[in-house]
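Q: For a teaching session next week I want to show students how multiple molecules come together into a single three-dimensional assembly. I've collected the sequence lines for a complex. Could you give me the predicted structure tokens for the whole thing so I can convert them for display?
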Amino acid sequence: MRGILSIKLIKVFFALFIFLLLIFLNPYNFFSPFRSIANTFFLPFQKVFYTISIAVSGTGEFLGSIGQLKNENAKLLQENQHLLAENSKLLDMQNENVVLREQLKLLPRDKYDLIAASIVSQDPHGMGNWIEIDKGGDDGIVSGMPVIVSKGVLIGRIKDVGPNSSQIMLITNSKSTINVMTLQNSTRGIVKGEYGLGIIFDMILQTDNISVSDDVVTSGIGGEMPRGLYVGSVREIHPSNDQLFQQAVVTSPLQVSKLQTVFIIRENK
Amino acid sequence: MKKKFVYFVMLFCAIVLQTSVLPLFSSTYAIGDVVLMFVLAGAVIDGFPLFFSWSIFIGIIFDLVNYTTIGIHSIIFLLVVYFVSFFSRRFSIELKGVGMVLLVLFVVAATLISRTVMMLLIDFDMGMPLAHLQEIGNLKIISKQIISNLFLFFLCFIVFKKAKKFFAII
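A: Of course. Below is the structure for the complete assembly, covering every listed component.
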């Protein structure tokens, strides 16, 4: 009995030692071909199941919200009247926006060469670190390309590329850092992920102006990202831990878990 | 050969569920772990000698599909399989009485082992030791995940048993 026990323990310890060694050495590229094979095999099924799940979760949310619809309808009627009044103001602001974009030299949304891709899977541990898409190197995707959704909202950038699938590192990933600025004051800094839970606008100089609800866009510094991709709006401002900079919590306008299609910016037209 | 094929199909379904279905229905950090529960059910039903190599294989396949460093999930699954084997020799594991309590204990332990190893290795990878410590110890999130895992475990356990009976796998 003791002999069997020790054999069992030795087996477990030996396997653990080998795998710990693998983790420390991390020969990531060595396994890339195997990753590609595994992904090729799993991808079609993941795509089908992801699409079905999105539809089911959407239906579930709809059914759950029926009770609220009546109350919301009454509120919406009131809001509608209010919005009609606002609309006239917004028309004026639209014209102003065109002028501002020109002044800030933001890229017009239709000037990107985009590749559409479907999401097939997500970080299974729910840490908001990455998503996987069904386009890869065969479609002209390379590591580092920015990824947006339809209205020019940045969600991350391409990390690993396989022949027909790629991994997108989301801006909520702790390893993600992107140069940004505010639209209102051109206050510059970097946004970085916070363990999949949110986005932090960091390295803002104490002398720079930043306010709650300021819009945060990519600054284009470094050339990694085009200028003017929307990241989110400022929700909260506080000093950094070392008191040298200001930090802001940024709220993204979208929920990545509900997305089905994303666009990869191949290049500026 | 038949056993390998049936197990592989079940593993395949579990991985697709884990990567493409469950994240859409669960909240951040509290996603049920169907692959882990599949391994746990396999370890309870088949025992250590028969499921040892499967746990390594499942870990490697899951890491490959999952873009994680190869070895992380194999370590988690090995620890879980050994934990189960350690208790299985001392108590009879059935879906009633003390056996049932033990199964719940296995699920709780497997969830905690998985969370801890996963978070520590991710922190190590990022060069920020113990950055996720708060999330490991968040009682609300852990409770949610344990409840999801309990449901998934019993689902896997029943599917495993039925499949073995249906395909006459020893």
